[in-house]
Specification:
The complex is a heterodimer of chains A (780) and B (378). Chain A is α+β, with helices and mostly antiparallel strands and 780 residues long. In chain A, the strands form 10 sheets. In chain A, strands 2, 3, 4, 5, 10, 18 and 19 form a 7-stranded mixed sheet that branches. In chain A, strands 12-11-23-22-21 form a 5-stranded antiparallel sheet, with helices on both faces. In chain A, strands 1-8-9 form a 3-stranded antiparallel sheet. Chain B has helices at 9-38, 43-63, 68-91, 111-129, 137-156, 161-177, 182-202, 204-213, 221-238, 263-295, 300-324, 343-361, 371-377, and strands spanning 93-95, 98-104, 107-109. Chain B has a 3-stranded antiparallel sheet. Chain B is 70% helix and 3% strand. The chains are: A alpha+beta (780), B mainly alpha (378). At the A-B interface, α2 and α3 of A face α6, α9, α10 and α11 of B.
Chain lengths: 780, 378
């Protein structure tokens, strides 16, 4: 224990820590003896380190007079100037050193490449009647952030499109996106119902959609396109690239919201529109062909029907029809059966029609004479290997000519016996069997004809009357056209010409494939084929005053390895006039259930088509116009009367019937719509000359009023090929002349009625642009 | 004390010039937005012009008021400011997720701007009063800290982090000039950084901003770094001499707030490096002038207020230009006198008015014509 009475003076270690003059120690507890505390009793000895730290921290330092010291003021200024310098350095780096890099970044975000869509080429028939063109449709999209009255918009859409209101409400509440497509390909007629909605967030875009004004007409030739404009079938697919053209683009400047900036010169590469096609198809003949085929298929209760009309001189296909058919405007609802173009994709055993080719070979090879006798063995002939060749009707001895007229299998098996098998095969190949015709359509198949090395003992005999081989309708039509063209095969084709976007017109020249038989042979054969119609199996095809040559075929179909007694392929192929054939018509019914002889079910269809063609071209003899008996009950042959149910079809009057369908011209530009309607004999009235057709209203007979929308879209300049030369109307009935004139975009004036016997100006004269009216004089 | 002479004309002309020039800047930067909003390109310009007139009027008005008057009443101004801040939290209207505006008739004003000036005045008054014992932790630092903390805390609550930080920076700046021991401020600053860091992390958008600045890309940050990217594109494409008046392309909805916080980038785009650097030079002049006024102020209060106002303008300008040039994460601070007229413009101009009034009392303020000399001298 240390005593208190002996204080130590000036003990530095005992002094409380002070700093600065103004400071004082809060620990100098003893006021009596400041700084004079015995070391043994130092209070701070008990304090811990953090207390000492605080004590030291809070000790007030000596402060300089703020009014006279400027150091801190300058320091603040220096910090600011330093900061500014840093900014200036960064600016120099960004704006001067890296300027190019940022400029590029800037222009790349301003630039926006906007596609300038190419117009898909228009497809018209040989006379300029437009079959496939482009209609305007509307696409609706929502920008939910900009749509104010969501309830109203959802309700309007629900009532127009028939979807539940909730469907649209859900989309409208998705504000994360600013462009949601809700309805596509809306026809103007329906889109106009939503004109009342004035919302910035409702985006309307006008697009083009392929439009087939005549619906199912020529659907298997034309095909159809997908929504994004790709050809998926038919010609649309076959020449997709040429029809589609090449999209152009323009480079626009856009702002941060993606909208194009005005008043800037944009770099532009114009679209190169697709080529406009003119087909070899004649819309009128196509229509009659379809009508006749449809009626014939219905009457015979056939599973399918095929008809081809061809010009044997050139190979031009004038019509090509398939049943069942479909409407390419609505191809989604079509079944595969309806979509098939059987004319080129179905190969089957042709049966008796093949006998014409066998006969042609035999005559060309000079191994048979026309009047040489052949024993038909009473309709049954047992050949090597025990197989039996049968005829439908028993015959005794027939001449070569009669063998074809009566279509005897037994005789034709014997006719083939004189033909050397490789030569026979080569002729068949030359006639195009098992060879693609190369017609301008996708998916053609080539059928099947085995090489002679693979033939069995009887193969040649079977091929001679159309079995043990298959062929497509287009192959048969081409082979028969060869005979009609006096031995020279022409390549079948559909595209007469196409006009490129630069205005150049590419015309297809008829293409000779080869000479197959001599002219003499073909003429001899044609005279035999005339006998088929006059007194053979095809008497139902007869038209008074017109010489027709042809051949029937009734082939049993191979069903599950056996020749069926229910499924037949019933064919008639013929051409006229026999002296100088201009039209060849092929008609095939597959599996007719109401009669099956080619002459009985296909023959009348042929006759119906032929009558229409003759009527339309003004070549129908006066005496043939008289109405014929509704039914022709029998076919007479040597062996007696054979009862065949056959009916004369009458589809032609329907063409002029009051209830004929109005072409669908919705969405088409006004001038185009008028041409389409006028080509079908409709009289068009409308308030506006420019614009797009919203809908058409029919007033009774032939008057149509068009409701036109002017504000919707840009005018489409449809570059349909129009002739600058006056067309030839001579010989046409007035009705057809009118149709023809509408399609060719010329005005006509009629004097008289009936057939055109005179026209001014003459055919071939240049059309006067100021006064394009042509006067036609009738014979009645 | 009576004013000895007229106010500093060079400062008045510079600030008035900036305010008038802002008409051109704002017009070009806001036209597209105006059209989109109201179908006329002048809509926002007219609003801005009204506020420019108000700002110039405020500047002239405060030039005429003897700054010594604030010394006595600064506490009440400060209390009023705190009342405003409390009010804005209760009745203020929300914009972009924060309550920053107080409705005031047809206008709405940001109380934080008023508080900045009130705080400058009050801190200055306190520092002047505590001149003799400014080093005393309890008697001087703590009270100053309480005032600052109260105001900054309320602003941070809005939430408006950048203005709260500016407020703290401002108060410390004045204290620093008033010879407050650095150890107090540094240790408070250290605590504030830790506390502030925690506060930053409590709000996701603040973290996103920092991440965006650090170059971390994700779908949330892309919008924020988008602003910086677009600001740099604006500056960069402007080049040395700029695209020309009215030629900005970034203003067309590429750069959000092109007329507000990012107007400096648009100026850089249209007037180039030369224009942007020249604008900073003008601000440097204002700051130098402010520091000179502070230095030559007749009394500590005048000295502190002048420093405070200079700091206020300087901090705003520096942070705004750092953000525009991509050197700092995006904050919501406008460029004084130049950005589209808000409360900030009017209060900054009013503050310059106070500064100008102080300049009337200065002794031997250097001639601005000899600026080069004075820079060396300063």
């Amino acid at each position: 224990m240390r005593s208190y009475d002996k204080p130590h003076i000036d003990q530095p270690s005992s002094r409380p820590y002070t700093r600065g003059d103004g400071g004082y120690s809060s620990f100098s507890e003893n006021p009596a003896t400041p700084g004079f505390i015995p070391a043994s009793d130092q209070p701070h000895k008990k304090t811990v380190w953090h207390q000492r730290l605080i004590e030291r921290f809070m000790a007030a330092p000596q402060v300089k007079d703020p009014m006279t010291t400027n150091g801190r003021l300058y320091l603040v200024l220096a910090i600011f100037l330093l900061g500014f310098s840093a900014v200036v350095f960064k600016l120099f780096k960004v704006q001067v050193l890296n300027h190019d890099e940022f400029s590029e970044q800037a222009s790349s975000q301003y630039k926006m490449q906007v596609a300038l869509p190419a117009r898909r080429g228009v497809i018209s028939d040989r006379n300029g009647i437009i079959l496939a063109s482009n209609a305007f449709v509307v696409k609706f999209a929502f920008d939910p952030q900009e749509i104010k009255n969501k309830v109203n918009v959802a309700a309007s859409f629900a009532s127009v499109f028939g979807k539940p209101k909730e469907y649209y409400t859900a989309i409208l509440n998705d504000t994360s996106r600013r462009y949601i497509v809700v309805e596509k390909e809306v026809p103007l007629e329906i889109a106009s119902k939503l004109d009342g909605i004035k919302e910035h967030g409702l985006i309307r875009e006008t697009n083009e959609r392929r439009s087939y004004a005549f619906g199912a007409r020529a659907s298997h030739i034309l095909g159809f396109t997908s929504k994004d404009g790709r050809g998926l079938a038919g010609l649309e697919m076959f020449d997709d690239k040429i029809l589609r053209g090449k999209d152009g683009y323009t480079v626009m400047q856009r702002d941060g919201r993606g909208r194009p900036r005005p008043d800037v010169d944009y770099e532009q590469v114009p679209a190169s529109n697709g080529d406009d096609f003119t087909l070899t198809i004649d819309e009128s003949i196509q229509a009659s062909t379809e009508n006749a085929l449809r009626a014939g298929v219905e009457k015979a209760a056939a599973e399918a029907g095929i008809a081809i009309v061809m010009n044997p001189r050139t190979g031009e296909i004038l019509a090509m029809a398939n049943m069942p058919d479909y409407n390419p405007n609505d191809f989604f609802s079509a079944t595969n059966e309806m979509l098939r173009n059987r004319a080129i994709t179905d190969a089957f055993e042709p049966g008796s029609t093949m006998k014409v080719l066998t006969a042609a070979i035999a005559l060309d090879q000079n191994v048979w004479k026309e009047n040489e006798k052949i024993d038909a063995h009473g309709g049954t002939w047992v050949v090597e290997g025990g197989a039996t060749i049968r005829d439908t009707h028993p015959y005794g001895v027939l001449t070569f000519r009669q063998a074809l007229e009566k279509s005897s299998n037994v005789c034709f098996a014997q006719i083939s016996d004189r033909l050397e098998r490789r030569r026979f095969y080569k002729y068949m190949r030359d006639f195009g069997m098992s060879v693609l015709t190369g017609v301008d359509l996708p998916g053609e198949i080539k059928g099947n004809l085995h090489k002679p090395s693979k033939w069995s003992g009887n193969s040649k005999r079977y091929v001679a009357f159309g079995y043990e081989m298959t062929a497509t309708p287009i192959q048969l039509a081409t082979a028969y056209a060869t005979i009609a063209n006096f031995g020279v095969m022409m390549k079948p084709y559909l595209i007469a010409k196409r006009k490129q976007s630069n205005g150049e017109v590419v015309v297809t020249q008829p293409q000779e494939v080869r000479r197959v038989i001599t002219e003499e042979t073909s003429k001899r054969l044609i005279s035999i084929m005339q006998g088929v119609v006059d007194s053979g199996t095809a008497t139902l095809c007869k038209i008074k005053g017109v010489s027709i040559a042809g051949k029937t075929g009734t082939a049993q179909q191979l069903v599950n390895g056996h020749y069926s007694k229910e499924h037949y392929t019933s064919t008639f192929i013929g051409f006229f006039p026999a002296e100088k054939p201009e039209y060849e018509i092929l008609v095939i019914l597959r599996s007719p259930h109401n009669g099956y002889y080619g002459g009985a079910v296909s023959g009348p269809i042929f006759r119906e088509i032929a009558m229409s063609i003759l009527e339309q071209t003004g070549k129908l003899p006066i005496d043939a116009r008289a109405p014929m008996a509704a039914t022709m009950p029998s076919i007479v042959d040597e062996g007696g009367t054979v009862e065949i149910e056959g009916t004369i079809l009458n589809t032609r009057d329907k063409d002029n019937a009051i209830d004929r369908d109005i072409p669908d011209v919705r969405g088409l530009p006004m001038d185009l719509a008028k041409r389409v309607l006028a080509s079908q004999g409709f009289i068009v009235a409308s308030g506006n000359e420019i614009g797009v057709v919203e809908r058409s209203i029919r007033f009774g007979g032939d008057s149509v009023r068009l409701v036109v929308r002017t504000s919707t879209a840009k005018e489409d300049n449809v570059g349909v090929i129009s002739d600058t030369e006056t067309p030839n109307f001579l010989g046409m009935p007035m009705a057809r002349a009118m149709k023809f004139a509408a399609a060719a975009n010329v005005r006509v004036r009629f004097v008289g009625d009936g057939k055109v016997v005179r026209q001014t100006p003459d055919a071939g004269a240049t059309i006067d642009a100021q006064n394009p009216t042509i006067t036609l004089f009738g014979d009645e | 004390m009576k004013a000895q002479k007229t106010a500093d004309l060079s400062l008045f002309i510079t600030v008035t010039g900036l305010l008038l020039a802002s008409l051109a800047f704002v017009y070009t930067a806001s036209a597209s937005f105006s059209v989109a909003k109201a179908m006329t390109s002048e809509g926002m310009l007219i609003k801005h012009a009204t506020k420019v007139v108000l700002a110039i009027a405020a500047m002239i008005f405060f030039t005429k008021i003897d700054y010594h008057k604030y010394q006595k009443h600064s506490k009440w101004l400060m209390l009023l400011g705190i009342l405003f801040l409390a009010a804005v939290l209760v009745v203020g209207h929300t914009e972009l997720g924060a309550k920053r505006w107080l409705p005031l008739g047809p206008f709405s004003f940001q109380p934080s701007e008023f508080v900045k000036i009130a705080l400058v005045l009050h801190i200055s008054a306190l520092c002047a009063a505590k001149k003799e014992f400014i080093g005393d932790f309890k008697k001087s630092f703590i009270p100053l800290l309480v005032w600052t903390g109260a105001a900054a805390g309320l602003i941070a609550k809005q939430p408006n982090m950048s203005n709260a930080s500016v407020l703290v920076l401002l108060a410390f700046g004045i204290m620093f000039i008033a010879q407050m021991p650095i150890k107090y401020m540094l240790s408070t600053g250290a605590i504030a950084i830790v506390g502030g860091g925690i506060y930053l992390m409590t709000a996701w958008y603040r973290v996103q901003r920092i991440l965006a600045f650090l170059g971390h890309e994700n779908e949330h940050t892309s919008r924020i770094s988008y602003q910086t990217t677009q600001a740099l594109i604006a500056l960069g494409s402007g080049g040395l001499t700029g695209l020309g008046i009215g030629q900005s392309r970034q203003r067309d909805f590429y750069l959000p707030e092109s007329y507000g916080d990012f107007i400096y980038s648009i100026i850089g785009e249209e007037y180039g490096f030369i224009g942007a650097a020249f604008l900073l030079l003008i601000f440097a002049f204002i700051i130098i002038r402010g520091i000179q006024i502070a230095k030559h102020a007749p009394d500590p209060f005048g000295r502190y207020v002048a420093s405070g106002i200079t700091l206020m303008i300087g901090i705003n300008t520096l942070i705004n230009s750092l953000v525009n040039s991509g050197l700092m994460p995006v904050t919501g601070l406008p460029m004084p006198f130049v950005s589209y007229g808000g409360t900030n413009m009017i209060f900054s101009a009013a503050a310059v008015g106070i500064l100008l009034n102080i300049s009337k009392f200065t002794t031997s303020l250097p001639d601005p014509k000899k600026m080069t000399a004075s820079i060396r001298y300063a």
